[in-house]
Task: inverse folding
């Protein structure tokens, strides 16, 4: 390889490709931007915004964020605009939004701290597990299962109801609905965590990047 070609490759490697940006990724960034906005609603003086209005506005912002969570993934698949960065950013935005909402609800006295800790702790643990499995090339082993989807539905129902807190359905207590849904989400959170850990357990002895390599005595490296 000539010096000119070597210099060209060095310059090219020194300038990585720009961060991808499209409508699905823009929706994901919008979800992240919404986090401080809906939290700030509850810190406004009551003279500026009545408590009932705060509940409705915060609930609406969170509900819109939940819709964009589904929409950005749908559009990315439909338009063929999936990317490694988008796959990384989307779950980060989801977990930040849920964690912020749960912490806020605990501060408002609408959710128990131990339930929030269970849900947030599980999200962190499974995110780390998926990252580790991705390094092993085993992402499919811990793909989102049906129980995970049911857990997410219960979790979103709980957060929306507890943020709203106002009666909407005749004869149904919104706080009670949210509390029951949060308990269901917490139980499914633990269940789904053990489900993913069980699927990943056979690979716990493997070393990332070691697949196909052998030890000095000729045995497969694990």
Result:
């Amino acid at each position: 390889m000539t010096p000119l070609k070597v210099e060209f490759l060095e310059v090219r490697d020194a300038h990585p490709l720009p961060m991808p940006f499209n409508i699905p990724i823009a929706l994901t960034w919008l979800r992240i931007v919404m986090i401080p906005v809906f939290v700030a609603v509850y810190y406004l003086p009551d003279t500026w915004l009545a408590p009932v209005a705060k509940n409705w506005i915060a609930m609406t912002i969170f509900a819109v964020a939940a819709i964009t969570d589904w929409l950005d993934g749908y559009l990315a698949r439909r338009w063929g605009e999936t990317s490694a960065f988008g796959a990384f950013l989307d779950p980060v935005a989801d977990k930040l939004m849920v964690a912020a909402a749960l912490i806020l609800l605990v501060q408002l006295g609408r959710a128990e701290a131990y339930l929030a800790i269970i849900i947030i702790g599980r999200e962190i643990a499974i995110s780390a597990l998926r990252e580790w499995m991705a390094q092993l090339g085993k992402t499919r082993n811990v793909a989102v299962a049906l129980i995970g989807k049911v857990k997410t539905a219960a979790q979103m129902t709980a957060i929306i109801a507890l943020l709203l807190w106002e009666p909407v359905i005749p004869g149904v207590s919104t706080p009670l609905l949210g509390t029951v849904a949060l308990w269901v989400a917490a139980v499914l959170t633990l269940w789904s965590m053990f489900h993913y850990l069980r699927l990943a357990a056979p690979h716990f002895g493997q070393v990332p990047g070691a697949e196909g390599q052998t030890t000095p005595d000729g045995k497969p490296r694990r």
